[in-house]
Specification:
The protein has 123 residues and is α+β, with helices and mostly antiparallel strands. The protein is built from three helices and five strands; from the N terminus they run αβαβαβββ. A five-stranded mixed β-sheet has the order 1-2-4-3-5, covered by helices on one side. Helix 1 packs across helix 3. The protein is globular.
C-alpha cells in the first residue's frame, strides 16, 4: 500500500488472523475524509480480511466480501450521537454499504448493484 493518511496507519487495517494487508488506498483516503467530517476519532476494529481469514473461508469464491477486497472497515463508535454522525457523514460522502451493529459501523465502497442504490443494513 502506498499513500499518506491523516488519521490512520496502514497497519490499522492488517488482517487480524494473518497479518496480511491489501487495503485499497482509495478506501483509506475516503475513511480519512469520513474521520475528518465526523470530528472525533474512531478505531478500526476490522479492516482487511485475507481469503484465509475464518470468516472469508466460509464464503464462496463468487461472494468475496468487501473486507477481502480491501474496500471496507468496521469502526467502533461510542453512543448514539457518534453512530448518527458516522452514518450521516458516510451517506453524504458516498459510501455505498453501511451496516450498523451494536458496537461498530461497517462502511464500504462496494459497486452498486442493478438498482444503482447504496445499501444499509443492521446486524
Amino acid at each position: 500500500m502506498t499513500g499518506r493518511y491523516k488519521y490512520f496507519k496502514t497497519e490499522d487495517f492488517d488482517c487480524q488472523e494473518t497479518g496480511e494487508n491489501q487495503m485499497k488506498p482509495i478506501f483509506i483516503h475516503k475513511l480519512d475524509t469520513l474521520r475528518e467530517a465526523c470530528g472525533f476519532p474512531f478505531i478500526v476494529t476490522s479492516g482487511y480480511r485475507s481469503p484465509n481469514h475464518s470468516i472469508e473461508k466460509k464464503k464462496t469464491k463468487e461472494k468475496v466480501g468487501t473486507h477481502a477486497q480491501g474496500i471496507a472497515s468496521d469502526i467502533r463508535y461510542k453512543g448514539g450521537t457518534q453512530l448518527h454522525t458516522i452514518v450521516q457523514e458516510a451517506i453524504a460522502l458516498g459510501f455505498t454499504g453501511i451496516g450498523i451493529h451494536g458496537s461498530f459501523v461497517h462502511v464500504d465502497i462496494r459497486e452498486l448493484g442493478d438498482s444503482g442504490n447504496p445499501i444499509m443494513w443492521a446486524y
